[in-house]
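Input.
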Amino acid sequence: MKIAVVGAAGRMGRELVKAIHANEGTVLGGAVEQKGSIAVGQDAGLLAGLGRLGVLITDQALETFAKVDAVLDFTVPAASVEFAGLAANARIVHVCGTTGMSETDDAAIKAAARHATIIRAGNMSLGVNLLVAMTKKIAAALDADFDIEIVEMHHRMKVDAPSGTALMLGEAAAGGRGVSLRDVSDYARNGQTGARKRGHIGFAALRGGNVVGDHTVIFAAEGERIEITHRADDRAIFARGAVKAALWGKGRPPGIYSMMDVLGL
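Output.
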C-alpha cells in the first residue's frame, strides 16, 4: 500500500515515515511539507534517520495524493481540512490525527467524507483506545455520586487544550452516562467557582517539558476513588496505529471512521 505523509519533516511526520518503512505491507509513496519549508527537496528517509529512500519532500499535495492509496495527517486544523478535500478528490484513505478542530472544521471534514474514507481519532494508540472503551463502561456502571475528572499532560509545545485524547475520554464518559459532553463539561476553574456540579465532567490540562502524553480518568466518590491512566513515552505508538488505520481503511466505503472501528472496539 502506497502511503503519503503530510508534515513529513516534523517530529510526528518523521515517526510516520519510519512506521511506514517498518511495515511489510506499506511503502512511502510521498512526503509533503508546507510551501517555503526548508525541507522541500530533501529526502524524507534521510530526515527520518533511515537513509535515502528516494522520496523527496514536496509542497505539491494534490500531485502527491494522486499517486498514493492513503495519506497520514497529524498537522493543524486548517491544513487537515484542505487535505481532506484533496483526499476526497483523489478517492483515497485519509488518516487524520489532527486535534483542536472547530465545528466549522468538523463540518468540512464531514463533507469531504462523502468521497473519502476518513479515519479520525484524537489518539491512534491501542492503549489509549482501550482506555476510552473502559472509561465508557465504568461511567455507565457508576452513578453521578462518582465525580469524573480528566487530567492530561503534554509537552510545552502543544498548542491546543484539552488534548484531543482528553476530549475522547470526556465523550466516552458522557456517552456512558447517556448525556452530552457539551452540557456537562467544565474546562477551567478559577476563583470562587462554588461547589462542584453533580454529574459534571471536569478537565485539567498540564503542559511542561517533553511529555509525549499522559492521561488519567478519575472517578471520585465519598470514601473511594478509581483512577485509570495511560502514559505514552514514545510517539512511535501513534505512528504504528496510524499505519494500521490506513491498512484497515483500504477498500472501505467513503465515510468517517474511528480507531474504535479499526480495533473492533
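The radius of gyration is 19 Å.
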